[in-house]
Amino acid sequence: MNTQSFTLKGGHVLAGLLLFFGAIIAINIAFAIAAVRTFPGEDVRRSYTQGLHYNDVLAERREQALIGWQAQTQLSSSESGARLIVQLHDANGAAIERATIDAVLRWAPNESGDQTLQFAYVGDGRYVAELGALRAGRWDLRARAHDAHGGALDFRSDLTWPTP
What we know:
This protein is an alpha+beta fold. 30% of the residues lie in helices and 37% in strands.
């Protein structure tokens, strides 16, 4: 009976170390590629340019605060799925009639669920957008309401569907 004993040599240790660290590096590269493909790291386009004009944004928000418009938002069920209701009123509590609302309902995990909304005026300062089938979860509404007289309001709202 002939038995040979295994002798660990420098080449074996080198091969083991190269395989180990090669596997670690390959896994890190795969995770980095997956992370960049699913979230590019920017919340808004041209963030640097927006930062340069941030003082203008602050001045516009101060002007909006002086006008005193207020917005209330609510998600509710409808025959087609979900509906978003926005109630606009001025500083005195009077309904804002015939404003135009430009809005995007943003899906937090990625841009694939974002929806540009079309609002219909239904009276008494209420504006309704039919959303249809809406994914369950948290949504971020970013909107701007403005009228023909120069009044404007930028507003955001965190919404949850289905409503609790």
